[in-house]
């Protein structure tokens, strides 16, 4: 079943001098348990697309369905991690996670919420910072807390908007490993993840499928299956010839844009390991 | 490495020298009639209490900035006390009837029978006026700040109302309100409401969209959003208005009591000024100063505590 279904989605921002087309006729769908990345240059509308799924923006035309139901605003069936400002700086790490749990799992008592929050902070490798405020944590630690909150809320869907965009490369790769590990092991049923990024390695390493977007107007350029089997070992995968080959082809598609893209994608799909 | 000289300096400070100077002044005979002979008991008890505080801080917090600040404040108090004694009791360089010595003022302060009632009355008036302004100002400011319709117009209107010195409301308040106490309460309310209201409005209006989005995607309900997201996010702005409102309140409290009151610390000063009782006037002034300092200190502590999450 399609967990997420986007059909002929367009979104125009009305500005003082006419309107601006952020998204034009975007269609794709995501299976349950699939990890999909959207990649594209800034201004291609990838974050706008995610904001429609988050319920923060409404489509101008077309439909966006989750579980077959049109999205009618924000909902607790979707966990969200932003690039920044996911956390509330006036709540401690523990309270930030517990506050998220409170919204999605109302049946839990305060005590249970706090215990669960601590358990999830432990899962993301943050054991002794429960009482620290986000302002006292590094950017990487803050994103770990945000991930802990999104996972603890136990939603079917995770929407991640360049969550590691502001993290230094060393910490970023550590966060990839953490995210994949938690995605594969945390819950019985794998969550459906839609992950926005502009980092091509990030997209390849994490995803089952990559959606390439292009700007003016924001549209889908290509959809590409990532052929590498899981579980993936980052150091091995990124060093492999197949990986370089795939990445180069992906970059070609990215830079050559639409014309020959169809053929290239066809070619790409044959290199499964 | 601490030299012998440095070690010596650590213990012989200006504070200690001034404290000793206060004692050395004591055997000098008084030239006034009001001051008892011998040691000025109240003055020296007060000075010694302060000195003990100094010693405790010296032991407990020598390396902390609070000690440096406290040391300067205490030295200043001692210096003022010494000069005050010198110019009044010991030399009468200042007119005795206008400038009583600290001993006489302190004795009056301790033994005054109506002072506690007046202080309590002022605190109750202040509490009623300020707290109601706090509740209504924060509530009104945040409700209007959250609504999309009210934008700049509110800012202009509140700026206008904020600029009117609240003292001009007193004639109307006297004419309209049933008794003098409610006049003071009303004027305090008027002087603190607008600063609190407008700073809350500005603060709530300026809450970063990302925090609101973050709350939205978590599906946070209206009241929870208000209490857990919007108010904390605008708290430092709100405190600016609260502090400003408090400062106005103190000014207006005593003014209103002096103009139309029948009780309270402002009325106390006004009442005794009719008799030219300068001892009690100084007592009143000192008590107001001490009260304001304590309240401001407590509010600052509260602000610091509630905003402890802010990275410096």
Please tell me the overall pLDDT of chain A. 88
Q: Examine the secondary-structure arrangement and name the CATH architecture of the largest domain in chain B.
A: Orthogonal Bundle
CATH class of the largest domain in chain B: Mainly Alpha
- The secondary structure category of chain B is mainly alpha
How much helix, percentage-wise, in residues of chain A? 25-40%
Q: Could you say what the CATH topology of chain A is called? A: Rossmann fold
Protein described:
The complex is a heterodimer of chains A (273) and B (312). In chain A, helix 2 crosses helix 3 and helix 3 (110-123) packs across helix 4 (139-152). Chain A is globular, with a radius of gyration of 19 Å. Chain A has helices at 46-54, 93-104, 110-123, 139-152, 169-185, 200-206, 234-239, 241-256, 258-268, and strands at residues 2-15, 18-31, 35-39, 61-66, 69-70, 78-81, 157-161, 192-197, 209-214, 219-225. Chain A has 273 residues and is of the alpha/beta class. Chain A has one domain (2-77, 156-271): Rossmann fold, CATH 3.40.50.300. The mean pLDDT of chain A is 88. In chain A, the strands form 2 sheets. Chain A has a 6-stranded mixed β-sheet, sandwiched between helices. Chain A has a 4-stranded antiparallel β-sheet with strand order 2-1-4-5, with helices on one face. Helix content of chain A is 39%, strand content 25%. Chain A has 9 helices and 10 strands. With 312 residues, chain B is mainly alpha-helical. The model of chain B has no long low-confidence stretch (mean pLDDT 89). Chain B is flat. Chain B starts with a helix and ends in a 6-residue tail after the last helix. In chain B, helix 5 packs across helix 14 (278-306). Helices cover 77% and strands 0% of the residues of chain B. In chain B, 35% of the residues are buried. Chain B folds into 2 domains: 4-111, no CATH class; 115-306, MetI-like (MetI-like fold), CATH 1.10.3720. Chain B is built from 14 helices and no strands.
């Amino acid at each position: 079943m399609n967990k997420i279904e986007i059909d002929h989605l367009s979104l125009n921002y009305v500005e003082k001098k006419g309107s601006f087309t952020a998204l034009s006729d975007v269609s794709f769908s995501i299976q349950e348990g699939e990890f999909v990345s959207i990649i594209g240059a800034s201004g291609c509308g990838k974050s706008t697309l995610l904001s429609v799924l988050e319920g923060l923006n409404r489509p101008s035309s077309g439909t966006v369905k989750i579980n077959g139901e049109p999205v009618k605003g924000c909902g607790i069936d979707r966990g969200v991690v932003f690039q920044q400002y996911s956390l509330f700086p006036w709540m401690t790490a523990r309270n930030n996670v517990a506050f998220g749990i409170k919204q999605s799992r109302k049946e839990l008592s305060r005590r249970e919420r706090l215990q669960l929050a601590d358990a999830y902070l432990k899962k993301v490798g943050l054991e002794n910072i429960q009482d620290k405020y986000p302002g006292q944590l590094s950017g990487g630690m803050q994103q770990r807390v945000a991930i802990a909150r999104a996972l603890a809320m136990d939603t079917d869907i995770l929407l991640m908007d360049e969550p590691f965009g502001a993290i230094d490369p060393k910490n970023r790769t550590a966060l990839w490993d953490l995210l994949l590990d938690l995605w594969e092991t945390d819950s019985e049923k794998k969550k459906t993840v839609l992950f926005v990024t502009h980092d091509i390695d990030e997209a390849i390493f994490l995803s089952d499928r990559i959606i390439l977007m292009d700007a003016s107007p924001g549209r889908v350029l290509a959809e590409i299956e990532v052929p590498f089997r899981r579980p993936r070992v980052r150091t091995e995968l990124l060093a492999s010839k197949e990986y370089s080959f795939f990445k180069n082809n992906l970059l070609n598609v990215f830079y050559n844009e639409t014309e020959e893209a169809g053929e290239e994608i066809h070619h790409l799909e044959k290199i499964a390991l | 490495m601490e030299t012998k000289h440095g070690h010596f300096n650590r213990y012989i400070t200006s504070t200690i020298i001034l404290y000793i100077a206060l004692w050395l002044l004591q055997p000098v005979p008084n030239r006034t009639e009001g001051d008892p002979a011998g040691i000025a008991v109240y003055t020296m008890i007060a000075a010694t209490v302060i000195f003990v505080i100094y010693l405790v801080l010296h032991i407990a917090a020598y390396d902390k900035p609070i000690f440096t600040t406290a040391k300067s404040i205490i030295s200043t108090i001692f210096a003022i006390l010494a000069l005050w004694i010198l110019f009044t009791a010991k030399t009468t360089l200042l007119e005795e009837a206008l400038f009583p010595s600290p001993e006489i003022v302190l004795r009056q302060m301790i033994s005054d029978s109506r002072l506690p009632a007046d202080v309590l009355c002022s605190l109750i008036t202040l509490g009623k006026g300020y707290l109601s302004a706090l509740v209504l100002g924060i509530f009104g400011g945040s409700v209007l700040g959250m609504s999309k319709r009210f934008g700049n117009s509110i800012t202009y209107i509140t700026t206008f109302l904020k600029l009117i010195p609240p003292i001009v409301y007193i004639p109307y308040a006297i004419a309209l309100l049933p008794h003098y106490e409610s006049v003071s309460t009303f004027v305090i309310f008027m002087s603190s409401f607008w600063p609190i209201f407008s700073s809350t409005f500005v603060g709530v209006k300026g809450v970063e969209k990302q925090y609101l989005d973050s709350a939205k995607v978590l599906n946070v309900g209206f009241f929870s959003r208000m209490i857990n997201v919007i108010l904390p996010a605008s708290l430092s702005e709100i405190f600016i208005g609260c502090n400003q409102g408090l400062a106005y309140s103190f000014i207006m409290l005593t003014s209103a009591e002096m103009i139309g009151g029948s009780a309270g610390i402002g009325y106390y000063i006004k009442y005794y000024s009719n008799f030219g009782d300068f001892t009690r006037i100084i007592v009143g002034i000192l008590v107001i100063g001490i009260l304001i300092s304590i309240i401001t200190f407590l509010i600052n502590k509260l602000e610091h505590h509630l905003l402890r999450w802010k990275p410096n």
